[in-house]
Amino acid sequence: MITSLLCLVLAVGCGPDAKQSMAPDLLVFAGDAPIHADRIELPVIVLNWGATPSPNTQLVVYVNERPNWRDSSTRTLLTRNIPALDSKSSTTVTVEIALDELEPDSDHYLLLQASSVDGELNPNNWDVTGFSLNEDKQVVMDCDSSAPHVGSEGATDPLFEEQWHLNNTGQQRYTTVAGTPGEDLGMSSVLSSGTPTGDGIRIAIVDTGMETCHPDLADNVEDGTSFNFNTNEWHNSDSREPYLPWAMGDHGTSVAGTAAAAADNGTGGRGVAPDAILRGYNMLAAVESEGTYFDSLGGSDTVPDSSLVDIFNMSFGTLSGEFRVDPNETRLFHNGVTLLRNGRGAVYVKSAGNAFYSCRSMRRPANARIGCSSSNSSSSHHSPYLVMIGAFDAQGTRASYSSAGSNLWISAPAGEFGATYGAIITADQVGANRGYDVLRNRGVALDAVNNPHGNYVSTFNGTSAAAPNASGAIALLLEAEPELTWRDVKYILAKSARQIDADIERVQYLVGGAVYVAQLPWTTNAAGYRFHNWYGFGAVAVDDALALVGSHTPDSLGTLVETEPFEQADAASIPDNDGSGVSQMLAVEGLADDADIEAVTLHVSITHPQTNDLGIHLTSPSGTESILNPIFNDALAGNADLNWDLLSNAFYGESPNGEWVLRVVDAAAEDEGTLNEWRLTFALGTHP
Predict the structure, then answer these.
(1) % helix / strand / coil in the chain, to the nearest 5?
(2) For residue 415, which of 188, 305, 423, 425 is within the disulfide window of CB 3.0 to 4.6 Å?
(3) Which residues, listed in sequence order, are joined to residue 627 by a DSSP beta bridge?
(4) Phi and psi of 404, rounded to 5°?
(5) Per-residue H/E/C for 166-193
């Protein structure tokens, strides 16, 4: 059914009214701080992610010995001025916290808030952090292995029955709405048989940190292999202990618990692969970041030795707003899939992002249906060497925040926010005074029977949670067949994926008098693969994937061929506010007749004053259409001109030979532009 939009009410392509929502938007982040014996030098990053400049503002730092900044014991620690910021620019304000002015042997929680000084901007953006001091007024820097916890080997895990993502029976203990039975990882056979468990498979948690002494992680942590990149920046820290001293939740600990918390030890729940081998690299918390990204992701065989890792879990994203390709990053991943695991290739599992409703610069009415920022917007997300993971909820639909895009490979459970609808139950920082539970005091945080010491959380979510669910699933596949290559893993996940939310309708608008399809329904390509930008090939189905492993011959996908670009260099005008757009054809010839597509990368060069207006579509010779960039992608708001690489997995298994069609649509009035050139690059195999 065509939805007709009236210009003054729901304008998709009408005049300036469609753009009046452009505004400044300040984001506040506590940065990675040097910790000295007597002080913390806390950098506070203030980013204007809005589409227009922000006025002068003020940073206010509040402190309390409990995380309730509304009570009378809260005091203002200090204030700092924040200068006016251009769109997509940032500044860093260093806040020095003198430790001798705080109480010893106690906890301290900080609220960092930007408040208006002049102009009309009144941002509510804020961040929190916290830390504990020992009796010498120094920051506590190590995991407390002596902290009390319950549990014993062979005992039932008390939270397992509530872990809907492993076995969704309609649980409702910690939420008001029950899940939908069967909307989970599809691993009932694994759970009933007790095998595989990920035994012997190494997973690197590349994140903020990891509490190696956590009672649900300690047995799976490989001694001496984790690494703390801050030993030169954090007083009294241990290079082999990626402990996060900040007390408001350790993302890496929760990620690790999702992937590989121990099973049947009488405490908490369990991970997808409860016998996998864990190591943590605190790359996201590194004060000095040079080299840490590469050292954490297989680029080092010394200290740390990340070259022995089988699966790298990358539950992080970027707000860079840049679309350039980093050749060093491309080389890192290429080397990882070529050289690691004795040439079979490490598996890089990456969160797709949480920006479906994150219209922070320019909200259009269409964004409510098609989303805000596409997962293709991050500079690294076009890499065919990554396994991009989307998120679904306990009802079997896209998690509300999960970024959509043609670069998704698979989706995994992550849930919502653990109140009305379920989130992930996993490990939290050890102790009732530390962790996500300190702020999100609901669900398992209130369960004194099953979580008496505050070591677990039931509100973990985001594609950050979906990724370790996928990493755990991949560990099960690799245990079942260690000879699988990284390409085999991707093939098996795509081939065995379970279609969810099958009745998604196409989204259509009238743009300039022409019917424009802004979002496609599930599409079945010429090779028989179902695909949707919300889910990739669908939901991870562990039991079905393991069944396919049993019949699949490892390394049977042929030699990977990465082609030179096929180029179309004839410039063409992009008609303004026209749902038909401009189309160009590109002939791809001379590739092997039996070649099967494994990835298609599109490079576009576009000159345009408002690239947020543009939708980019690609159609294969077999007639499969993919939307590589949706109209009104918020990541492009305020961005003029593009030199951009975008990835589509929708053509997986098809032949590359024939006429490809690129279509660029301008869906809003007033700005005209030019498609300068475009080119296609293919990754090809020869599939069974």
Answers:
(1) 15, 30, 55
(2) 423
(3) 617
(4) -100, 155
(5) CCCCCCCCCCCCCCCCCCCCCCHHHHHH
Token digits for 368?
Answer: 């409510």
DSSP reduced 3-state for 307: helix
Omega prior to 43 cis, within 30 of 0: no
Rounded (10°) CA dihedral 469, 474, 479, 485? -170
**Which residues does 448 contact at the CB level (< 8 Å), separation at least 6?**
none
Region 531-543: what's the mean pLDDT? 98
User: pLDDT per residue over 556-607, tens digit each?
Assistant: 999 999 999 999 999 999 999 999 999 999 999 999 999 999 999 999 999 9
Token reading at 675: 């498609």
Tokens of 73: 């014991």
Cα separation, 181 vs 192, whole angstroms: 17
Task: Report how far residue 294's alpha carbon sits from residue 533's, in angstroms, rounded to the nearest whole number.
Answer: 29
CA atoms within 13 A on the CB side of 346: 26
Straight-line distance from the first to the last Cα atom of the chain, in angstroms, rounded to the nearest whole number:
40
Helices 251-260 and 463-480 meet at what angle, rounded to 10? 40
Burial track 109-145 (b if 16+ CB lie within 10 A, e otherwise): bbbbbbbeeeeebebebbbbbbbbbeeebbbbbebee
- Inform me whether the pLDDT recorded for 6 exceeds 50: no
| Among the listed residues 349, 217, 210, the one whose alpha carbon sits nearest the alpha carbon of residue 270 | 217
Return d(Cα 445, Cα 461) in angstroms, integer.
15
> How far apart are the C-alpha atoms of 468 and 484, rounded to whole Å?
19
Supply the angle between the helices 542-551 and 486-496 in degrees, to the nearest 10.
120
Q: Does residue 597 contact residue 654 with C-beta atoms inside 8 Å?
A: yes
Amino acid 12: pLDDT: 32
User: In whole numbers, what is the pLDDT of the chain averaged over residues?
Assistant: 92
Contact between residue 121 and residue 48 where contact means Cβ atoms under 8 Å apart: no
Task: Return the half-sphere exposure (C-beta side, CA atoms, 13 A cut-off) of residue 158.
Answer: 16
State how far the Cα of 174 lies from the Cα of 426, in Å rounded to an integer.
Answer: 13
